[in-house]
Recover the amino acids of this structure.
């Protein structure tokens, strides 16, 4: 891949903005992602396992809510690095689409088609609901800001 | 030991996802859709290969788990207008579950 000029090059048509991919950001995402995945592994290992994959459902719903609410935190608004380490890093590593899809496939493959369907739908409904709830909190204007 | 392998797999999977999303996500989140579909496919493939505890910790739980992301998917969906959000949710669900089934079938035939 060719090097693009660091600054001042005209925007590509149709792109909203395309800042360069930075090495430090990749390292922050690697560190955050490793921590998030370790937490997911710990939650999953500590949870009792039945037919219905509650631990993964809880992980994805909590992670979606926290990512939605993240911009409400001062430290995240102040530092792009903290935002990168926590958002695509920790929460990206904590939550997972692959295990969700894998569990749906496994349940359906084992003949538990209704459970597979319920798990698929519940993850979507609760996960999207949680993300929307988090977004509502982070989009709410600060009282001080509203008062000027 | 397995925890360390999860960390190792995730330390590769997460930045790879970030790079793909950074390069391809635009008005439509093509990059995140792609990593979630490919990651789910690999998860199905690895599951079929019966890797053993350590191989699964590294590749399944660590790499695929951190390569894919539910949180970004959910927030990207709710940040979009209703029709685009619905299309994105349906596309992610179909490609992830379909990709995983395809990976499983491929892995089972090896």
């Amino acid at each position: 891949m060719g090097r693009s000029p660091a600054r001042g090059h005209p925007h590509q048509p149709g792109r909203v903005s395309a800042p360069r991919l930075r090495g430090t950001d990749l390292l922050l995402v690697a560190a955050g992602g490793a921590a998030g995945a370790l937490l997911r592994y710990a939650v999953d290992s500590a949870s009792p396992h039945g037919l219905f994959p509650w631990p993964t459902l809880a992980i994805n719903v909590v992670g979606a809510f926290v990512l939605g609410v993240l911009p409400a935190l001062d430290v995240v608004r102040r530092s792009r690095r903290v935002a990168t380490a926590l958002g695509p890093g920790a929460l990206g590593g904590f939550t997972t689409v692959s295990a969700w899809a894998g569990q749906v496939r496994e349940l359906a493959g084992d003949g538990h088609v209704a459970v597979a369907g319920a798990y698929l739908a519940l993850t979507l409904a609760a996960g999207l609901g949680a993300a929307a709830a988090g977004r509502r909190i982070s989009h709410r204007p600060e009282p001080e800001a509203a008062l000027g | 030991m397995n925890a360390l392998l999860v960390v190792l797999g995730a330390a590769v999977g997460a930045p790879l996802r970030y790079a793909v999303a950074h390069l391809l996500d635009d008005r439509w989140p093509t990059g995140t859709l792609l990593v979630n579909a490919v990651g789910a496919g690999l998860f199905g493939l690895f599951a079929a290969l019966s890797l053993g505890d350590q191989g699964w910790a590294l590749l399944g739980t660590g790499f695929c788990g951190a390569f894919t992301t539910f949180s970004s998917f959910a927030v990207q969906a709710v940040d979009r207008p209703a029709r685009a959000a619905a299309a994105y949710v349906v596309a992610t669900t179909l490609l992830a579950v379909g990709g995983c089934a395809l990976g499983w079938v491929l892995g089972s035939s090896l």
